[in-house]
Fold:
Amino acid sequence: MEELWPRPDPEVAEAIRSLCQQLLTETDALTEAIAGPTLTAQNEPALLSDASLVEEDLHLNRSELVQWLTSNVQRPGRRVEPYVGPRTTAYIQDLVSRGIAPDFVGGWRVALGIGWRRWLEECVAHCPSRDQLVEVLDVSAKSLVQYAIDSVSAMREASLAAAMGNADADAIALIQLIASGAPMTEDLAEGRLRYRMSREHVGLVLWTDDPQQAGALDEVVATVRSAAVGRSALVARASATSRWLWLSDSATPDLRHFRKIVAKAEDVRAAVGRSGHGLDGFRSSHQDALAAQAMIIRLGSARRFTAYADVELIDGLTKDRAGAQRFVTKTLGPLAEADAVLRQALLTYVQCGFNTTRAAADLYAHRNTVERRVSRANELSLVKVEDNPTHVAAALLVLDIAPDITAP
Structure:
């Protein structure tokens, strides 16, 4: 790339290298500080509502930060060439295929503001003289601003290339319109997607945390489609690491077989919406599944299969993580840190309508054993189950999904 300003003096170059080496040890914290505000600044609701795309955007923020810091360790104060790797290219293709056009300029503007303030703090703390501070800030400002300009240009070029090579854009764009609530007739949707709409639908989201395991997603999709005898199945490639599915039937589709399929695929996770009829059901079930996926990712949960109907209350409780942590601690007290077997016994007991015999059958344990565990769990809990079973059950469910939520 063409160099647009003079090479810095050796002392200034060494100062920049040292500062970048220090900040490289803080990349995770810096990425977290930058990612949320830049995501909002990109002003794209479809991006914000998809947890898989949000994860990819977080990865993009981290890779851009690391690229600038490592380049300035190797060549301090010089122009930095953006790196658009395979994962970034796949992310751009996913955005284009779904008609999502984030405001990259707005995102970079916010990222520069946050990153530059952190850079200023490091420079002021470590530059030994006023003259060196001025030189370091002058050179690094040129490098950082030019890097933002070059990165936005690279992203636009990648978007154009993806648009030219996207053969399935029309179908995916139509799905996106339906899912977002745009007016649509069932006849038009059925004709364009070749999927029956005037039936019961269940929306599913499949995803993997590892982009290298994307092939496992397609294997699960293929197995689901082959098992969907007598049903319609619609599949959309939502991103490199996620797939959207809809299953429809004349009655509510039975997902027990699907759950077994997911259980056999170690690297794949699934979220399922509540069933619904027609276009509205198609849309609402999909939104449920997206909400369940977002909750699992937000809480860092290892749960593999999540039905939104089972966790809707927990989704609302945990949108504020600190508030959820307080709720669990103030409800359960010492029970929150006790043996998980005790918590599971009390939760199952409540879910079985306070019937010890049914709880024992569900837990594959002797009735007396369950009684002892329930009694001990209730002793440890600050709020007693007989006083407020709803709060106790909700707090136990939060811990069941996110066992580490009470950790510092």
